[in-house]
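Support reply, case 0932

Customer input (verbatim):
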Amino acid sequence: MIFGFREFCEIRDCIYARTGVHIGDQKVYLLRRRVEERLRALGLSSAEEYIAYLKYRDGSGKEFDELVSSVTVNETYFFREFPQLQTFAEHCLPEVVERKNTGRVRILSAGCSTGEEPYTLSIICQEMLDPPHSFSITAVDIDYRALEKAKQGIYDERSVRDVPQVYLEKYFTKTSKGFVVRDEVRRFVTFRKVNLSDREALLALGRDFDFVFCRNVLIYFSDDSRRRVVETFYAMMNPGGYIFLGHSESLSRITSAFELKRMGGNLVYRKPLKELVREW
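Our regenerated output:
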């Protein structure tokens, strides 16, 4: 199969145009391997045929979903980046609950992958919130395969290696297939297939989120795509809501719309309680 830089760029640009995910030049061989796998699955013989298939024969988008699923990274585990989660649980969550007084806390887990993050957040909220406060978690990802695994809620020892033993016994059932997340954790989480670059699809989820978790996801986006996604998150959040990024990520180069606060020894970003007119 001929898979030169031109073919790489054409497929790479197609992925970027639809998802905002940027595949760097150094990943040409990775993308080639994935395209070769898809050629075998479809019975095609060249990259040109595959490009034409994506453009003219994939009306449902199923093949594009297969391609994206094959190139996205799903590296995650329960209670990942624990100090940040501790800040959420012990500082940010109580502040938001006190301000809301009563009602439901809404959380968005963006780029939820195979479900470890939203289930972790469900466990934390159950431990931290007392009636009359309740919560719901909307978990979204573009990778349908990852979402199917998330819905199954079955994980190996590697995924649960950082779960405190007391939580492992309380919220998981160990079976021959692995560690199964119990229903009392799962019932608070709703999974949706959503492209983070699709502003309308995101906004359709609601404009009343108190927390947005988008950790280690925006690193795969271009600068322009990051700005657009963060702008949409801002529009989806309640004033005073918090957004959490990965420990190596920052909003400083993307926007000044969020306040930078130090809580529990960590820096966090909050949507101002009093909104100002923002220029993006």
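We compared this against your earlier run and they match. Two observations from our side: The chain has two domains: 5-71, 82-270. The CA atoms of residues 192 and 279 lie 30 Å apart. Please reopen the case if you see a mismatch on your end.
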